[in-house]
Amino acid sequence: MADTAPVADLSGWHNAPFGFAGLIHDCFEKGEGPGVVLIPEVPGVTTEVLALGEHLVSEGFTVVIPSLFGRPGKPDSAARALLVGVRVCVSAEFRALTTHASRPVADYLRALARDLAARTPAPGVGVIGMCFTGGFALAAAVDEVVLAPVMSQPSVPLALTAARRTDPGLSPAELRQVADRTRNAGLCVLGLRFSEDRMAPAERFATLREQLGSAFECIELDSSPGNSAGFSRHAHSVLTHELRETPGHPALRARDEVVAFLNRRLRP
Fold first, then answer.
1. Under CATH, which architecture does the 14-266 domain have?
2. Which end of the chain is more exposed for a tag (fewer CB within 10 A), N or C?
3. pLDDT per position as a tens digit, 14-49
4. So where are the chain's domains?
């Protein structure tokens, strides 16, 4: 039984910088098949994020990981997360402290999704955002090429007030466009969180249920006191830090459900 999260390195990943509207970032690509943009969590393209990417590659997807912050290929650490987190929170590219905001990085990610869709066999692509970038996956779904947006523990804006806890992490105009796609184009959105996670509050998912209705599918893992999996009340990263490759592990099942969601949307 594995007692730590899976990790991987940059071996075999091709780095192709991608630019749009004045923003340029290294993008690491690997695999064949339908495309998935995997947006890393803070502090960046860590060994845990790369392990998730490797799993998606093994499941038959072309995966592109944009390096939006941090040093790619390094393991995660609390010190690195704090340092990178402070920098990105004040960056105009991310507007992390602003409520109900459109963010320049969302335009960049939509352009990256269009580029990947043009080079891969499915009619569109999936986008997975995690923690700091969870809401960016939903904002990317404004573009019609994004067919499978996945928000894992979305944490922007920081949930410091009641208004921030209900904020889904994108502008009202963007949310209206996404909602319109759910009603008229069959778009579905997948969200993941731990039940006691204050960084990705339940109120944020309640807003999405209200706005998107049954098109918002939610996976909530039990992290309440005494939960059977032994998650702490601080459990946060569903698809990376908290995942164990042990049969029956709740986070492993959640990863399987993400893959199934991508398959349903990208291989109809």
1. 3-Layer(aba) Sandwich (3.40)
2. N
3. 999 999 999 999 999 999 999 999 999 989 999 999
4. 14-266
pLDDT tens digit sequence for 192-249: 999 999 999 999 999 999 999 999 999 999 999 999 999 999 999 999 999 999 999 9
pTM for the whole structure: 0.95
